[in-house]
Amino acid sequence: MITKRSLLSLACTGGLAAIFPDAIRTATAEAVSRMLVGFGAGGAIDVVARMLVEGMKDYAPSFIVDNRPGAGGRLALGALKNSPADGTAMILTPASCVAVFPHVYKSLRYDAFKDFAPVTTVCSFPFLITVGPLVPADVRTLADFVKWCAANPKQATYGTAAAGSMLHFTGMSLAKAGRFEFVHLPYGGPGGIQDLIGGRIAATIYPIGTALPHVESGAIRALATTGAQRSPQLADVPTVREAGYPALETNEWFGVFVPANTPAETVTRLNGAIRALVNTDAFKAALAKLAVDPVAETPKEFAQLVKSDFDRWGPIVRASGFTPED
């Protein structure tokens, strides 16, 4: 059985190539190709990036994952902006970095619509709202947690991967709906889970695949998922709509971008290679173990999705009153 832990181990040792034997044979150049990731190793996006790279080894003679953690994924996008537009540099990034950050950061060093060319989505997933040992065991529902936070304002904290992200604003929306103060702690990756397990923070909001192994082990407790339907992996965990907070319902995606001015034929070739891989039974099965759904689109469809999410999250960001420190 493929588990998230075994997938990460395989990704780090190159063993995922054995899972995807029919890698796409569309080599573009003799140079090293890089899949940038704006977060550290161990999170869901890093695992998916390594699955892509291992499944597309024949796309280029050498294909690597290049982790550039920092600034909630913005550093990696800045690096992509200044990379060669020849198909050897690309990024796997969450929706927040291109659809939400432009509303948040006035000094953003990239233009999500001018500096990058969308290639395709890879997967889509809900978030999981979880609590740890700092929160009493009798807090079993989202409504219970809201009451606990209101009664314990100094302990009402939550961690996510990045400030200004969909994860962050999901927590702010919960606090607004529940009328309590909720202190946000950005970790730049999955590190918030360890602080949750250690009792240093009350809650986390992460992609379901990041939190799932720790819920299954009993180290943390899941209160709700932000998806429209319950997750097959956590069938007993209600959706936020079922829990009484429909405004929190949302999904995020991971998508691939290349620098602007990358030749259209190169974008088309890369899109075809990734979509073919994502649609294989082996890749779908591996994604299922991470509790994410495969979603592979054309560049035009992907561009429309980015614009749709950009338009949706603008009013949410403005209504939150959030002002970033950088």
Short description:
By secondary structure, the chain is an alpha/beta fold. The protein contains 11 helices and 10 strands.
Give a written overview of the molecule.
It is a single chain. The chain has eleven helices and ten strands. By secondary structure, it is of the alpha/beta class. The chain has two domains: 190 residues, 3-Layer(aba) Sandwich (D-Maltodextrin-Binding Protein, domain 2); 123 residues, D-Maltodextrin-Binding Protein, domain 2 (3-Layer(aba) Sandwich). Strands 1, 2, 3, 4, 5, 6, 7, 8, 9 and 10 form a ten-stranded mixed beta sheet that branches. Strand 5, helix 6 and strand 6 form a beta-alpha-beta unit. The termini are far apart. About 6% of the residues have low confidence.
In the CATH hierarchy, the third-tier topology of the largest domain is known as D-Maltodextrin-Binding Protein, domain 2
Which consecutive residue ranges, at least 5 long each, have pLDDT under 50?
Answer: 8-14, 17-28
Structural category: alpha/beta
Number of domains: 2
The percentage helix is 25-40%
**CATH homologous superfamily descriptor of the largest domain:** Bordetella uptake gene, domain 1
Strand content: 15-25%
Q: What is the C-alpha radius of gyration, as a whole number of Å?
A: 19 Å
Task: Work out the helix count.
Answer: 11
Q: Tally of extended strands?
A: 10
Form type: globular
Main beta-sheet annotation: 10 strands, mixed
CATH class of the largest domain: Alpha Beta
Quote the average pLDDT. 90
Q: Tell me the span between the first and last alpha carbons.
A: 44 Å
Helix and strand run? HEHEHEHEHEHEHEHEEHHEH
Oligomeric state: single chain
- Identify the CATH architecture of the largest domain: 3-Layer(aba) Sandwich
